[in-house]
Amino acid sequence: MRTDRLVAILLMLQRREQVTAAAVARELEVSERTARRDLDALAMAGLPVYATQGRGGGWRLLGGARTDLSGLTAGEARALFLVAGPASAATPAVKAALRKLVRALPEPFRAQAEAAASSLVSDPQRWGSAPVEPQAPRWLDDLQDAVIRGVQVRLGYVDGTGAATERTVHPLGIVAKGPSWYLVAHTETGRRTFRIDRVASAVPTGDPVHRPADFDLAASWREIADEVDRRRTPLETQALCRPDGMYLLRMMLGRRLQVGGSTADGRVEVVIRGYNAYALAGELAGLVEWLEVTGPPQVREQLATIGAALARRYG
């Protein structure tokens, strides 16, 4: 997301005397053209960013942005970077706050500000349905604060069966998924995900979190979401799709579609995951013009049953 890149560039400028578009491109894994466009956008938004030309030139913050804090507290600095991170798009009010922050953020606040910018992922798609706006549960702020400060939490939790447990966890990040919020944490049994609306208590222990050096919240959540999707759609169906139907197939099925190679007649081999044979056949019946299901037999049988029913009703 562009907001993430702009915040990352501001932090780079805070840490370094000067950056080049090439250095920004390498660090953020974007093209130099994109890096220059982002740097220009910061300057056009009114931030004290300027370019120096010629050999040894680059981009700098006016005056090094090392002025006094001007009334901004550590918590406010964290909050500003939190709302400008992956969880939301920057509003004009956030841009104004960031202008204040980039001129004032001192060294002691910088680590927590960076942690806040990467502590939250928002995934608005509800499992299997349309996006919704998540509502903040009771313990969200406490757990988010523990993530940012890097402290362990004694967590009281009630699972889906109603069983209550208590354990010490190492909070690593917060994710909003549809209407629900999740805590991603390390425990004695490995990485776990907890629905925050099922948290009964959250007491910081003061002990530091053991955070893997290579941990990335967004990548970790993608793994978790993929695993949940696989559990929810355990049946795999093999099929052949005409090339002109692939766009529709990708649009309908998203991550439940796995694309393979091409056959001699030009069709594309695909594997499609679904909940069960009946549900999957119902989804795929309308794609008969482009798609031929080759297995398993129970999905083909369900498609034949649906086809016969449609012919009786509309034939």
From TrEMBL:
A Pfam family the protein falls into: WYL
GO molecular function, one term: DNA binding
Source species, domain of life: Bacteria
Keywords: DNA-binding, Transcription, Transcription regulation
Domain HTH deoR-type: 2-67
SUPFAM superfamilies registered for this protein in UniProt: Winged helix' DNA-binding domain (SSF46785)
Gene3D superfamilies cross-referenced by the UniProt entry: Winged helix-like DNA-binding domain superfamily/Winged helix DNA-binding domain
Keyword Transcription: yes
Protein name: Transcriptional regulator
